[in-house]
């Protein structure tokens, strides 16, 4: 039997995602941190931030859109915030939990944390995965990995008009 030449990948399923979010939320709760707002980094942080909001009982969930990845292990030189950005005055004095799917290079988390820094009472970060090369060590992380991660929300190509869905 021939071996698979593709690199190993970390596969996250929706079922595991549910368990991971509960564990991540429990870590936040056990630390005593009670965020006023969950700030999700779109796009990968949208499911994470929304789920953490529910798990932690935080109804104020907001989004900041940052572009960095352009493909599998392909990225821009630096992350870029895309409009609309939340008004930092709306974050003034708040305890913010910045949520994303992965701290890979850490540059996206660094950008968003810096954006909030002068306005918020406190900002902490929560991610599902942390990679060893990340320049930011999130306060809360579900798992460490050095593999490429396949998330359930990005495992399939985008749906297009008139695409035929087949069952395996």
TrEMBL record:
Q: Determine if Glycosyltransferase is one of this entry's keywords.
A: yes
UniProt KW Zinc keyword: no
TM annotation in the entry? none
List the SUPFAM superfamilies: PRTase-like (SSF53271)
Domain of life from the UniProt record: Bacteria
Provide the Phosphoribosyltransferase domain boundaries: 14-156
Q: Which UniProt keywords apply?
A: Glycosyltransferase, Transferase
Where would one find the signal peptide in this protein? none
- Family annotation (PANTHER family): HYPOXANTHINE PHOSPHORIBOSYLTRANSFERASE (PTHR43363), HYPOXANTHINE-GUANINE PHOSPHORIBOSYLTRANSFERASE (PTHR43363:SF1)
- MF term (GO), any: glycosyltransferase activity
Q: Which InterPro entries match?
A: PRTase-like, PRTase_dom
Protein known as: Phosphoribosyltransferase domain-containing protein
Instruction: Quote the CDD domains the UniProt record gives.
Output: PRTases_typeI
């Amino acid at each position: 039997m021939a071996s698979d030449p593709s690199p190993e990948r970390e596969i996250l399923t929706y079922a595991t995602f549910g368990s991971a979010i509960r564990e991540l939320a429990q870590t936040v709760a056990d630390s005593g941190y009670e965020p006023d707002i969950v700030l999700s980094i779109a796009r990968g942080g949208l499911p994470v931030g929304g789920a953490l909001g529910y798990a932690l009982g935080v109804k104020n969930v907001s989004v900041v859109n940052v572009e960095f990845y352009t493909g599998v292990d392909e990225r821009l030189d630096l992350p870029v915030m895309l409009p609309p950005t939340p008004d930092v005055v709306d974050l003034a004095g708040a305890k913010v939990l910045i949520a994303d799917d992965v701290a890979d290079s850490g540059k996206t988390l660094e950008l968003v944390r810096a954006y909030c820094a002068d306005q918020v009472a406190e900002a902490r970060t929560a991610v599902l995965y942390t990679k060893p090369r990340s320049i930011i060590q999130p306060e809360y992380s579900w798992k460490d990995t050095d593999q490429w991660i396949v998330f359930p929300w990005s495992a399939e190509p985008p749906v297009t008009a008139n695409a035929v869905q087949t069952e395996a």
